[in-house]
Specification:
DUF2905; mainly alpha; 2 strands
Amino acid sequence: MNPMAKLLIIGGVILIVIGLLWQVGGRFLNLGRLPGDIVVEKENFRFYFPVVTCIVLSVVLSLIMYVIRLFR
């Protein structure tokens, strides 16, 4: 199989799995509403910046990539 085709298929499967986990996990985890996320609400304006959520996702993805590289 062509390496690029294999990479695209694996990437697609990973995105599907992440989407399903996000859909199901959103009901059980408050990902995106963690303490430390910045929310500013005014009358006609709402600003939301998930600082802590970004940090948590970065750490989790870094650990996953580290484990993948260990077994490669």
